[in-house]
Specification:
By secondary structure, the protein is mainly β. Helices cover about 0% and strands about 45% of the residues. The strands form 2 sheets. A 3-stranded mixed β-sheet has the order 1-3-2, with no helix packed on it. Strands 4-5-6 form a 3-stranded antiparallel β-sheet, with no helix packed on it. Strand 5 and strand 6 (about 60-65) form a beta hairpin. The radius of gyration is 12 Å and the shape is globular.
């Protein structure tokens, strides 16, 4: 699995590519003051991957279909 940063997506969401072997995890959180981007984290636990997006008072979680095995 290759994790990429410093390449924000227009949607502000994490995106997987190449059959789940690559994920772009840049959600442009440094641009929140310009009206887009959000605090986020890529969480990998127990063989599962999730994108966590932090909104005031809540955490939005999305499953990511990533290839985590060798």
């Amino acid at each position: 699995l290759l994790v990429c940063g410093h390449t924000p997506s227009l949607s502000g969401r994490m995106k997987s590519r190449f059959g789940g072997r690559y994920v772009c995890a840049d959600t442009a959180m440094v641009f929140q003051n310009r009206g887009f981007g959000m605090d986020s984290a890529l969480v990998i636990e127990e063989g599962r991957a999730e994108a966590w997006y932090f909104k005031p008072g809540k955490i939005l979680k999305e499953s990511l279909d990533l290839r985590l095995n060798r």
